[in-house]
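Structure (tokenized):
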């Protein structure tokens, strides 16, 4: 065994003196040290360093990352895949699950007419949570509110089926409770008679802040009812739904 060690040491030393390439399992090495076959390492792999300093063996859990041609690789932490339910996005080089809220109504909700500078009405009965992966949404029979976990751009969607007075212009949207102002809204002329329904839809992408509180609201100059089910001869199904999803 000592004889073999001496032979290997001698080959390596000879190659280093000649600044030659050394191949194991190949007569035509392509790099300074070329192994054509398997390689077993029973201790650390040190990368980087120079003639005066030792390379780094990394720490437990790190992976070896290439830094390109002519540069030593480096040990780095692997970005973990989150376990929460939702869509995975990349933010600042890290995998995160995008905060997402999807809520449907549990019953119809009716509200009075408002006018002037009165704040729009908070929509109640938005308490059938489909997803709330950051657990920040609260809803009951007369209110709703939520926060976001991080500053970012969020897609806001609202689909509401309404009954109200024909000729009015109901407004629906996302309200900033902290600033007492709309973040996103849409208003549309209501054509249907009172005993019929019309669907209002909002889709917008806006910046939301973790220091603010938000709520889904509606305002109209006539009393209104928001339907939670769409009904017809062929059956019924959920129709009113709101959602917020982080995009970046």
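Design, position by position:
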């Amino acid at each position: 065994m000592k004889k073999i060690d001496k032979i290997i040491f001698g080959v390596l030393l000879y190659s280093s003196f000649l600044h030659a390439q050394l191949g194991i399992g190949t007569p035509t090495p392509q790099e300074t040290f070329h192994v054509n076959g398997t390689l077993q390492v029973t201790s650390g792999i040190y990368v980087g360093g120079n003639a005066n300093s030792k390379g780094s063996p990394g720490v437990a859990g790190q992976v070896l990352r290439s830094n390109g041609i002519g540069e030593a690789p480096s040990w780095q932490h692997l970005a973990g895949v989150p376990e929460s339910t939702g869509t995975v996005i990349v933010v600042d080089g890290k995998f995160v699950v995008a905060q997402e809220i999807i809520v449907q109504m549990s019953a119809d909700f009716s509200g009075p007419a408002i006018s002037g500078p009165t704040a729009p009405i908070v929509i109640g009965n938005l308490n059938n949570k489909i997803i709330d992966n950051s657990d920040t949404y609260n809803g009951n029979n007369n209110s709703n509110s939520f926060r976001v976990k991080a500053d970012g751009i969020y897609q806001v969607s609202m689909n509401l089926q309404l009954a109200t007075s024909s000729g009015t212009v109901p407004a629906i949207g996302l309200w900033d409770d902290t600033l007492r102002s709309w973040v996103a809204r849409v208003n549309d002329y209501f054509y249907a008679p009172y005993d019929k329904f019309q669907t209002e839809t909002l889709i917008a992408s806006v910046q939301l802040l973790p220091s603010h509180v938000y709520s889904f609201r509606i305002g109209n100059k006539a009393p209104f009812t928001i339907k939670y089910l769409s009904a017809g001869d062929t059956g019924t199904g959920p129709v009113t739904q709101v959602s917020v999803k982080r995009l970046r």
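Reviewer-requested clarification: The helical segments are 2-18. The mean pLDDT is 89.
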